[in-house]
Amino acid sequence: MSRNSDRKLVLVTRKTRIEELLAQYHTLDQARFYLEHLGADFADYQKEHATYQAALALMADLLQAHGRYQIVDRGFLPNFLFGPQDVVVALGQDGLVANTMKYLGGQPLVGVNPDPYRYDGQLLPFEARDMARLLPELLEDRRPHRAVTMAKATLSDEQTLYAVNDLFIGPKSHTSARYEIALGEAREVQSSSGIIISTGLGSTGWMTSVLRGAFGVVEALSQQEVPGAGAALPWDADYLRFAVREPFPSKHSQAGLVFGEVTGSTALELVSLMPQNGVIFSDGIEADFLAFNAGTHARIEVAERVGRLIV
Question: What architecture is the 150-303 domain classified under in CATH?
Answer without folding.
Answer: Sandwich (2.60)
